[in-house]
Amino acid sequence: MPVMALDVGSKRIGVAVSDPGESFALPVAVLERTNLRADLVRIADLAREYEAGELVVGDPLRLSGERGPAAEQTDRFVEQLAKQFTGPIHRVDERLTTAQAQKTLIAADVRRAKRKTVVDKMAAALILETFLARRRGTAPRS
To answer: Which domains occur in the chain, in start order?
Structure first.
């Protein structure tokens, strides 16, 4: 069953989905944030559409590894998400995923305007890749 990952930001939510065999992560959408209720409904709809049995949410820790205001805001988001989604919800350290996604897009010679529209779903795919690699036992734990 596919796994869906979210890179939750204040303006956008990047979405990625795995294949059913959990071999790879595919960036699928960037949701423009509106209000919490509408955002949660759209996420639940996408989870149903992709038949996702689990969710992975990026955990925006500080570079030191400590939890800050962004992580606390994500905690509240996940609490509300758990009311809409009945499957397991996992958290994965997302430090530097957006920067890594930007570097990948720059290396691929993607124009700046295009990067803005895809970086969040690329970051979600990196979060999902990390989760899947750890699940397979092929990535070190941080």
So the answer is: 3-136 (3.30.420.140)
What are 70-111's pLDDT values in tens digits?
888 999 999 999 998 989 999 998 865 666 666 665 666 666
**Mind giving me the DSSP string for 25-80?**
EEEEEEEEP--HHHHHHHHHHHHHHTT-SEEEEEE---TTS---HHHHHHHHHHHH
Q: How many angstroms separate the CA atoms of 89 and 98, rounded? A: 21
CB of 44 closer than 8 Å to CB of 33: no
Report pTM.
0.84
User: 93 in helix, strand or coil?
Assistant: strand
Residues 6+ away with beta carbon under 8 Å from 76: none
Give the tens place of pLDDT for each residue, 111-127: 666 656 677 888 899 89
